[in-house]
Every structure is written in structure tokens, then in C-alpha cells.
Design goal:
- This protein is an all-alpha fold and 114 residues long.
- The protein has one domain.
- It starts with a helix and ends in a 13-residue tail after the last helix.
- The N terminus is likely disordered.
């Protein structure tokens, strides 16, 4: 499932995701369908494999100031989005290992609010 978030990352896509998260009016099922729509017809493992290089290619030419700039109050900067992706990668890996190692592992949801 984590590969689904790594879709075709662009600044526009990141802003769209953040905008939607701020004004979430969809059901969990609608959210799942929207996420699946981003990878429709694409191999999720290939997307996951290519994501790190794609993010590096997109962010390498940017200055620290550009990476830290928030497009609007309350909106995430590129650096914040990258930190979120890194955190999600660690948690996703831990969850997958837990599920594979222990039958009946219960997974706790992400805490969305500070």
C-alpha cells in the first residue's frame, strides 16, 4: 500500500494531496479509490523502486530556501513532505515486517493530528 502514495510525485501533485488532506470530505473508501487511481495501470513495485531517484531528480536543483518554502500558511513545504515520506517509509517497513513475522499482528492507525 505504501507504494500507492509514491505515485507520480510532482510539486502540483504534492500540493493537491495537501489541499485535499486539509479539506477531507471523502469516506475512507473514496480515499482508497483516489489513491488507487494515481497508480491505475502501473506496477506499484516499479513505482516504489523508482521513487527515490525521481524525488532526488526533482529536488536536487532546488535551493534550501525553495525546499523550506511553504506555499501558503498551513501548507507543507517540499522538505516537510519529504520528511513525511521518509517517516512513512520507516513505519511501512516496520508494519510489513511485523505482519510477516507475527500471525495476527494488530496495526495501529497513524495519528494524524499533533
Amino acid at each position: 500500500m505504501r507504494a500507492l502514495f509514491y505515485l507520480a510525485i510532482t510539486p502540483h501533485t504534492c500540493n493537491q494531496l495537501c489541499d485535499r488532506r486539509q479539506n477531507m470530505q471523502e469516506t475512507p473508501q473514496q480515499y482508497t479509490q483516489r489513491m488507487l487511481g494515481y497508480v491505475n495501470g502501473k506496477d506499484p513495485l516499479r513505482i516504489q523502486k523508482e521513487t527515490a531517484k525521481k524525488l532526488q531528480r526533482l529536488t536536487k536543483p532546488l535551493s534550501k530556501r525553495q525546499l523550506a518554502r511553504q506555499p501558503a500558511p498551513g501548507k507543507w513545504s517540499i522538505a516537510q513532505i519529504m520528511a513525511h515520506l521518509a517517516d512513512a517509509e520507516l513505519v511501512g517497513g516496520w508494519r510489513m515486517r511485523s505482519v510477516l513475522a507475527n500471525n495476527g499482528t494488530s496495526l495501529h492507525p497513524f495519528r494524524q493530528e499533533p
